[in-house]
Amino acid sequence: MPDDSPPHGLPADIVRVDEGLVCGDEQPYFPAQLGEPQFAAHDAHCRHYYTLLPRFRRVVTEWIAITVEATSDHLRFRWDGNDLIVTDDDALHDATDPTSGPARERLRPDADGRYAFPTWEWNIPDVALDSLDEDTCAALALLTHDAPQPVDALIRYVTKNAHPAPDPQTLRIIRHRHRTTANPPTASVRDTESEETHDE
Predict the structure, then answer these.
(1) Closest to 84 (Cα-Cα) out of 60, 102, 51
(2) Is residue 135 part of a domain?
(3) Which of 29, 76, 86, 130 is most open to solvent, judged by the fewest CB atoms within 10 Å of its CB?
(4) Can you give the C-alpha Rg of the chain in angstroms?
(5) Closest by alpha carbon to 178, among 88, 63, 57, 87?
(6) Is the peptide bond before 6 cis (omega within 30 degrees of 0)?
(7) Domain residues for 37?
(8) Residue pLDDT, tens place only, 88-108
(9) For residue 3, is it within any domain?
(10) Is 151 domain-assigned?
């Protein structure tokens, strides 16, 4: 008989059975599928180190973009249909040409409709249900759905757990802008393979 218990130990109404929680530095937890381990490096003692690249559903990707844009002084996000355009104002598109403009990265959904941020570092937190507060549980429960409502719980969650703490109204403005421009006419955005470098 198959074991349908969540591998992360959290109930399925908080995190989907096939997902776990990840977070960036000083950012909220977000649910993701964790891919196969990828070799990253080895040390002088020949120990191998691996990374897991989390893959996020569209709605979770939207909330990651909203959160990071509200807390970053150099990253901006824009939806171009199903693609997410990440603009890094601190990095140049062409590192050798100071007139090249900011670096842009186009993130496309994979065959399962999930998004990855291949140049970002993610942590797998060691969490248990009894360590999650009420607002976190409510927000994560909403993110098990593909159209989470009401967004007030998500706004509270991000405001409480992101650093620096964003203004709730700023989160609403960014969210509204992302929603409004989710399907604009096709724009000419140069794709980059640079290693530099959300609703309802």
Answers:
(1) 60
(2) yes
(3) 130
(4) 18
(5) 63
(6) no
(7) 20-180
(8) 877 655 555 556 667 789 999
(9) no
(10) yes
